[in-house]
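Service request form, structural biology core

Requester: graduate student, group of Dr. S.
Request type: structure prediction, single chain
Budget code: on file
Notes: please return the result as structure tokens.

Sequence provided:
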Amino acid sequence: MAFASTFGQSYFIGIFSPNIEAAFGLSHTEWGSVYMVGTLLSAALLTYTGSWADRLNLRLYALLVCSALTAACLAAAFANSALLLIFAIFLLRQTGQGLATHTAVTGMVKVFQENRGKAVAIASLGFPTGHALAPVIAVAAIAAFGWRETYVGCAIFIGLMILPAVAFLLRSTDGELPEGAVAVSGKDGAKPVEATLFQAVRGATFYLLLPGFLATAFFDTALGFHLLSISKLKGWSPEWVTAGYIAHAAASVIFSIWAGSWVDRYGAVRLLPYSMVPYVMGLLVLGFVDHAAGAWVYLALFGVGFGIKSTLIPVALSDLYGTKHVGAIRSFTATLSVFSTALGPPVLGWALDIAAPIATMTWIAVGYFVLSGVMMGFIRR
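Core staff response, request fulfilled:
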């Protein structure tokens, strides 16, 4: 399911950006706005659809998500107007980036009571695998067959490979989850709780977490979406940049596993502030290094941050709020993150259209990440 989320992730959709802009006659800002509207529609529904993970059989839920993701890829392939393009983006973001990711990590958090960090880390290996393989394959497929045909191929892959694999892997337990699950929070001194979504959003802790969640969502999405446009300004070839996702994936794998081990040892909440550091370093490289190697270094550093974040955030939420309602809580935070991802592409697209100085954009992003890390540092207090 983590791997399947690739088809709705911004970095994957961004690979199609030049072709979609040319096919529909869109500017960077207009295409970013189409993406924003579709993503906002997805975010509006995600809290509701994500909460089904607390009520439905896990196997049934996962199969429904896979089926809908197949339909989303077909919708993208056959969209012939801006309105249908918005609908396709809505489906891709809802089923891929939203629900496939949600199913992968929420399922692991609910099922595994001990070694939860390692469990989430292992499931999260699907994310960097997608980062490593999908962009390179997509660029080659688009060049050989066309962007619409490539999306048809994505739908066929999900229908013939991902969906049967999910059905097979969940066959023994039929996806049933343990009852009465409680949080394992001793590392951070917190008492096991079972908070509802309403209780979570009433506490100050949630709002100390939120800026950090939104920081990674906004900037990672915006940069991934417009990375080929930025690389053009720096004189980096598309093939070189997309190949750099291998470095992103390798770093994600290494640091996801590392984070899983350290989360189980020290607690996710204690480690949260440090998860901002790789993003700050990556932004500085992207903003101020013009050598072609900078593309790979930037992607590797963002891969470090992605690997750490993909393990820390689900476990931190279960440590702070318990597991009984974690599907609803995580889907609500995902909704807010999706709203943030919706704003990223048009904002950066507008900045690129007006030729805003890269240094200025870099320092704004760095300042926000630093502030987010400081706020996370107050959670334990």
